[in-house]
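Bumping my old thread because nobody answered last time. Still need a sequence for this structure:
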């Protein structure tokens, strides 16, 4: 396809800016065209350019016809440089000009594009036609033009992710500025009832804004893209939420459009055939787009991704983006490689290229990218996480080095500056990890020149199949809070570099300075220690296999609530913090940790463990008056910290710092023993509270009979009466404890009807809300994928039914 002269002018104006001297393009086009013809005398290419009379006269004749004097001067400068390099003296325009009168030029045979193919040997000078001049000009600028377009398209990738992140950042920070979010705490009942503002929903602009927000939350943010799979994989694939899907689909569409068939390929190209042009441009475009995707790929993979903090989006959201960017960048790299291979085959240069560094390093990088994507599929990741990680790190390193040699200045291309940001992002993440490890685990006391390090006690509860890890960090960790997780290392053991994330189940400030649950605000430090006492009244179902439980000290606060703390005199770091993690052994490090505990005659060990954190964002449950927490198995870890924070916040002597008035806590687990163990420790302060309703379920076969957990519960919530959707067995077990002040908590057997439970609590809250249009209720799930998906679906259907105050939160395994 031929471009018009108008387009040519546009191209010359807009795109020639890339050439060293745009004026030189005119002579460059003529030189290229004349170089395609043969003249009598069989001169070499350089001689033809510089000294061959027939050829040089042809060049300057065309120059007189098509170029301005500035362009002739600029072009002549370039050509004479080339000639000088070849040891020749260019016959100048000025020397030939006297002969270039109109009659002489009119006498010259005019040649066109098709004459090139005749391979005629000219024994006189020639004049290139205007169309041949234009074709030659286009040929010269087209590669630069395509390169320029590809680079601008690369910026579109930056614009896309920049825009998406900006929306996330604005949305996140706006949420802190809205009045409801700014004042989460309401100190007294009076202000609570005032805040309810019974009546119809707001109208006008506020009403429209609320409706839009509700629609977006209901139809885009909460549900999975399709069906009921989100945490559960579908054919070994993660199904994102709808909003994540929209972003991912837009990203794919953008890349397809940017790689799309918008290339200017024309038959009369003097250097390349149409096929060669197409492959070359596709290869260049996809190569540059692949490079443009790399910084996002690296940023979104990091633990210390500042956008997690800026947007409030979870690591798993960024992980979804990371995976899709990786796939796109890899496909682009593969197309890039194919494009160049085909082109080189056309040029008959393919075989020789394998000795070129830029060639084989590029191929290597393409292969390692492909292998990383292949070994990242869930099927492999779940089976061999450590191998997946090793492959990822080693291959990412090879990819970086390979790309550096592929596009360094030595290979004639200048793309290595695109790679340095990746090195910087990676280094930042690694240094930040190291800094966090040092910060959490090492405290140097300059006064007495001593060093405090992290102390750990690990205990394995056989019946519950759970390792409980109590950690006293060497240094105070920064602001422990619900929703956080830490990476744990056991550096002195085999594979000491391994590190695994675990949710912070519970934390205790032994100084009591922050009014934590263990030491109520205002009580002196020493008193806290003195109040620790042996309390034998917690009768747990005796385990046949596990060692008899060690006596557990209890700490009482003013209201008579008790907090049991395990007492490990050898493992104290003096007053500080105590972090508790609950670990369900799998097959790798967690199993090895369990085995270490089993080898100990006491069942408890004191391993050298380092923590790195905190990571993860807290879900704002405390902004909701009603909260439903549903957890499965070891998902209890996430619930404990939120429940404990609720107790702390509502007991704050300076006034409640939470909006939450009712919590419905549902825990389904296989082993009743797990409930018993944790009920006697972390959950104990919940019992007897009127604002927390507890439903416990055990599903393993040997838990068929309802089990009684004998714990001093005190009053129980009247809120329980309203759970209409419980199955018969569930009803009987719950009603036996509801409203009582005895010491029994029952564990029901079997899975509950989660959907029914969620809807029933929402209905109850609506009835309690009176005239309030949209009572606020948060539902949080943490547990097996199927359970989380079921709860998400239940909340989605409630939101669909018009419950605007309902929100869904999920703590996931990333
Ligand atoms: C944010 C987060 C919080 C978590 N909190 C808890 C918790 O409180 N309690 C708990 O018992 N478990 C928790 N886990 C899961 C825990 O990290 C894994 O069970 C643990 O890493 C398994 O280690 P392993 O070597 O024994 O695993 P393997 O037997 O090798 O693998 C078991 C499973 O864990 C996955 N896995 C292994 N290593 C990692 C890793 N480093 N990062 C992510 N996944 C991994 C594997 O893909 C596989 O699916 C959490 C995971 C995440 C991402
Ligand atoms: N912060 C976090 O992200 C975090 C922390 C800890 C755990 N977790 C999650 O929690 C999961 C728990 O694993 P685990 O091995 O500890 O659990 P588990 O011992 O297998 O217990 C899970 C319990 O949930 C029940 N359950 C499963 N699907 C259900 C559903 N759809 N409805 C109702 N009940 C259902 C199971 O019942 P059955 O026995 O009938 O199957 C079982 O009793 C992990 O897979 C992880 O995803 C997340």
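Sorry it took so long. Here it is:
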């Amino acid at each position: 396809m031929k471009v018009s002269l108008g387009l040519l002018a546009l191209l010359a104006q807009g795109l020639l800016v890339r050439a060293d001297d745009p004026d030189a393009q005119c002579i460059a086009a003529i030189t290229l065209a004349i170089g395609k013809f043969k003249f009598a005398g069989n001169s070499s290419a350089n001689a033809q350019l510089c000294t061959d009379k027939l050829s040089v006269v042809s060049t300057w004749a065309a120059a007189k016809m098509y170029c301005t004097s500035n362009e002739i001067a600029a072009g002549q400068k370039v050509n004479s440089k080339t000639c000088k390099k070849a040891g020749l003296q260019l016959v100048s325009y000025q020397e030939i000009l006297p002969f270039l009168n109109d009659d002489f030029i009119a006498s010259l045979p005019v040649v066109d594009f098709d004459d090139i193919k005749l391979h005629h040997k000219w024994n006189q000078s020639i004049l290139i036609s205007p169309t041949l001049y234009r074709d030659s000009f286009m040929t010269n600028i087209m590669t630069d033009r395509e390169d320029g377009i590809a680079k601008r398209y690369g910026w579109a990738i930056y614009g896309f992710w920049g825009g998406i992140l900006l929306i996330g950042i604005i949305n996140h920070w706006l949420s802190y500025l809205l009045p409801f979010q700014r004042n989460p705490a309401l100190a007294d009942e009076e202000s609570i009832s005032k805040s309810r503002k019974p009546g119809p929903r707001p109208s006008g602009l506020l009403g429209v804004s609320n409706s839009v927000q509700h629609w977006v939350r209901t139809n885009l943010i909460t549900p999975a893209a399709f069906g009921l799979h989100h945490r559960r994989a579908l054919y070994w694939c993660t199904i994102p939420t709808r909003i994540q899907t929209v972003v991912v689909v837009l990203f794919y569409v953008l890349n397809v459009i940017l790689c799309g068939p918008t290339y200017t390929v024309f038959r009369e190209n003097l250097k390349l055939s149409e096929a060669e042009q197409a492959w070359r441009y596709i290869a260049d475009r996809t190569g540059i787009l692949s490079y443009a995707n790399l910084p996002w790929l690296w940023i979104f993979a990091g633990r210390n991704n500042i956008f997690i903090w800026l947007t409030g989006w979870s690591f798993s959201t960024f992980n979804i983006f990371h995976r899709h960017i990786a796939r796109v960048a890899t496909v682009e790299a593969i197309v890039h490689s194919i494009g160049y291979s085909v082109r080189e085959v056309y040029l008959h240069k393919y075989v020789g290229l394998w000795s070129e560094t830029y060639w084989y390093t590029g191929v290597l990088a393409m292969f390692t990218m492909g292998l990383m994507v292949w070994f990242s599929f869930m099927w492999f990741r779940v089976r061999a996480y450590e191998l997946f990680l090793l492959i990822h790190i080693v291959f990412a390193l090879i990819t970086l080095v390979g790309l550096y040699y592929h596009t360094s200045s030595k290979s004639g291309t200048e793309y290595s500056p695109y790679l340095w940001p990746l090195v910087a992002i990676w280094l930042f993440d690694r240094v930040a990890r190291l800094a966090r490890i040092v910060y959490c685990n090492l405290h140097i006391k300059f006064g007495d020149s001593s060093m405090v390090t992290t102390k750990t006690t690990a205990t394995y509860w056989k019946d519950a199949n759970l390792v409980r890890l109590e950690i006293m960090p060497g240094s105070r960790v920064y602001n422990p809070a619900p929703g956080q997780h830490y990476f744990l290392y056991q550096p002195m053991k085999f594979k000491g570099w391994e590190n695994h994330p675990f949710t912070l189940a519970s934390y205790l400030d032994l100084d009591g300075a922050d009014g934590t649950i263990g030491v109520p605000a205002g009580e002196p430090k020493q008193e806290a220690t003195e109040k620790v006492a042996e309390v034998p009244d917690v009768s747990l179902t005796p385990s046949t296999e596990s060692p008899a439980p060690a006596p557990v000290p209890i700490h009482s606060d003013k209201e008579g609530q008790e907090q049991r703390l395990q007492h490990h005199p050898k493992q104290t770091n003096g007053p500080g913090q105590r972090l508790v993690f609950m670990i369900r052994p799998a097959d790798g490090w967690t199993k090895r940790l369990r085995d270490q505990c089993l080898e100990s005659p006491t069942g408890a060990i004191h391993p050298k463990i380092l923590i790195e954190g905190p990571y993860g964002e807290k879900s704002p449950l405390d902004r909701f008056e009603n909260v439903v927490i549903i957890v499965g198995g070891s998902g209890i870890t996430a619930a404990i910290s939120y429940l404990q924070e609720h107790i702390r916040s509502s007991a704050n002597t300076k006034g409640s710092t939470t909006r939450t008035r009712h919590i419905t806590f549902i825990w389904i687990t296989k082993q009743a023993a797990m409930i018993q163990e944790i009920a006697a420790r972390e959950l104990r302060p919940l019992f007897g509270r009127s604002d927390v309703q507890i439903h416990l379920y055990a599903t393993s076969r040997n838990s068929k009979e309802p089990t009684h957990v004998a714990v001093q519960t005190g009053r129980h919530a009247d809120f329980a009466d309203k759970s209409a959707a419980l199955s018969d067995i569930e009803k009987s077990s719950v009603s036996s404890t509801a409203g009582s002040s005895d010491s029994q908590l029952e564990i029901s057997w079997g899975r509950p009807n989660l959907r029914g439970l969620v809807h029933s609590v929402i209905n109850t809250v609506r009835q309690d809300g009176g005239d309030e249009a949209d009572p606020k209720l948060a539902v949080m799930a943490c547990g097996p994928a199927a359970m989380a998906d079921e709860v998400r679906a239940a909340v989605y259907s409630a939101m669909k039914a018009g419950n605007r105050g309902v929100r869904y939160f999920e703590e996931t395994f990333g």
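The pocket of NAP (ligand 2) is lined by residues 503, 584, 632-635, 637-638, 668-670, 699, 751, 754, 782-784, 786-787, 790, 811-813 (CB under 6 Å). Let me know if any region looks off to you.
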